[in-house]
Design a protein that fits this description.
14% strand; alpha/beta; single chain; 6-stranded mixed beta sheet; 434 Repressor (Amino-terminal Domain)
């Protein structure tokens, strides 16, 4: 087993779960291999769960509760953890984004961070009242390296027409931003489709979200944006609901070629 400490249980509900899982395993004098049998995973999976590098999901929580007859405590802890904001949510998200094999994005107000130019990102950070804009900008742009690595993820983005028309940072900045989106959309692993304003009401109007698919046992997770934070959703049933919502939004979007044509038209009048 890993000798890394479990995270501070006071830092978040997820950290408490990792800490308590190790405590309960050691109390029962179980090795990593035996604990892996309980969870339906490997010794490495157990180590990652106990150090907070991976989150306990609903299925594994239920397996522990059945095996140890806990009265459902692990399932309840996971349920509560998925309800609220996590103080460490962004660090967790960045780790998942870096390991994702497929990233699906729905955005209706801002260009996704992975697509942003430096000027567009700087304008957004400055308007948001960020104190150290240069440092924040460096971190945001560093995330985009994931698109240039040898095993870059497949990235599908659904973007609202409205966000493409909004001249964030000024018309010149936005025109350059749209040109960058067009360039990215030509890559074989990146698809961009636009949801026209003429669609009217559709399932995406209640907020932006992302769905990340990973190769390891973490499976698929969703990330939901919220003011002042965000929420990672590892629950399989809830992630499925985001899958369905993404498909319904996508059914209203233009094909990729028509989407590129619309972006070019917006650039011409910008």
């Amino acid at each position: 087993m890993s000798f890394r400490e479990s995270p501070d249980p006071k830092s978040s509900m997820w950290a408490l779960i990792a800490y308590y899982l190790r405590f309960c395993r050691q109390q029962r004098k179980l090795t990593g291999e035996l604990m892996g049998e309980v969870l339906g995973g490997s010794k490495a999976t157990v180590s990652r769960l106990e150090t907070g590098d991976m989150r306990l999901d609903e299925t594994r929580a239920k397996a522990i509760d059945r095996k140890w007859q806990t009265g459902g405590i692990f399932s309840l802890l996971v349920w509560y953890a998925t309800l609220g904001h996590d103080p460490d949510w962004f660090k967790q998200y960045l780790d998942l984004e870096a390991r994702a094999k497929v990233i699906r994005i729905w955005e209706l107000s801002l260009v996704p961070g992975l697509f942003q130019t430096a000027d567009y990102a700087r304008a957004g950070l400055a308007s948001g009242g960020v104190k150290d804009v240069d440092a924040a900008l460096e971190h945001r742009l560093a995330r985009q390296a994931v698109l240039d690595k040898e095993d870059a993820p497949v990235l599908w983005a659904l973007l609202s027409e409205s966000l493409l028309e909004s001249p964030c940072g000024g018309r010149d900045v936005m025109r350059a931003q749209l040109a960058h989106i067009l360039d990215l959309s030509e890559r074989p692993n990146i698809g961009v489709r636009v949801v026209p304003k003429t669609v009217g009401h559709h399932p995406g109007l209640d907020g932006a979200f992302m769905i990340l698919r990973l190769a390891d046992p973490f499976g698929e997770v969703a990330y939901v944006e919220a003011p002042g934070g965000g929420r990672l959703v590892p629950n399989a049933d809830e992630v499925t609901s985001f899958d369905l919502r993404y498909e319904r939004i996508g059914s209203q979007a233009l094909p990729e070629s028509a989407s590129r044509d619309m972006i070019k038209q917006i650039m011409e009048v910008m």
